[in-house]
């Protein structure tokens, strides 16, 4: 989901909407692919084996892929690999418009929007402007020294966000 919670991509076969086109494309497969993989514990069927495996974890609670640096465990090895990047600082996704790098492709996609979106969210403490509310809120912490700004302390006024 985008920081603005916009979901501009709508499925033409049902009412589902998505923030990213790639998620819509993946969803469209659910309408066209034969769901031949059935869960042996309930009536759900899946078109992709990976989705069935992920679903099976909801019945067993087993997460076989354990992080060796913390107590987190995962159903899929690919999710573990992505998680490990948070420990080792690996950031393989680089913006082609600036020097920023990211550990998740999703974060790069979000960041790329900052280069094209209008920066209409202005800090009330300085002249900096931001394209996403989340970036402005993160910036506001530099003025307050707080690690967390709760939603109740943030007042949205037109396109500006002010800490109360």
TrEMBL record:
GO terms for MF: DNA-binding transcription factor activity, RNA polymerase II-specific; RNA polymerase II transcription regulatory region sequence-specific DNA binding; zinc ion binding
Keywords on record: DNA-binding, Metal-binding, Nucleus, Repeat, Transcription, Transcription regulation, Zinc, Zinc-finger
Top-level lineage group: Eukaryota
InterPro entries recorded: Znf_C2H2_sf (IPR036236), Znf_C2H2_type (IPR013087)
Protein location: Nucleus
Residues annotated as domain C2H2-type: 9-36, 37-64, 65-92, 93-120, 121-148
Main location (coarse class): nucleus
Gene Ontology cellular-component terms listed: nucleus
Family according to the record: Belongs to the krueppel C2H2-type zinc-finger protein family.
Annotated protein name in UniProt: C2H2-type domain-containing protein
């Amino acid at each position: 989901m985008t920081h603005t919670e916009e979901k501009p991509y709508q499925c033409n076969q049902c009412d589902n909407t998505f923030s990213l086109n790639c998620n819509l494309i993946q969803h469209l497969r659910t309408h066209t692919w034969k769901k031949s993989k059935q869960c042996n514990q309930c009536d759900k069927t899946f078109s992709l084996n990976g989705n069935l495996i992920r679903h099976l974890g909801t019945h067993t609670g087993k997460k076989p892929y354990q992080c060796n640096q913390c107590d987190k465990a995962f159903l899929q090895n690919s999710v573990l690999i992505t998680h490990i990047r948070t420990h080792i600082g690996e950031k393989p996704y680089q913006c082609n418009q600036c020097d920023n790098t990211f550990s998740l492709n999703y974060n790069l996609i979000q960041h790329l929007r900052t280069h094209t979106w209008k920066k209409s969210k202005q800090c009330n403490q300085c002249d900096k402007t931001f394209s996403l509310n989340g970036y402005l809120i993160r910036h506001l912490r530099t003025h307050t020294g707080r690690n967390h700004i709760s939603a109740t302390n943030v007042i949205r006024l037109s396109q500006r966000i002010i800490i109360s």
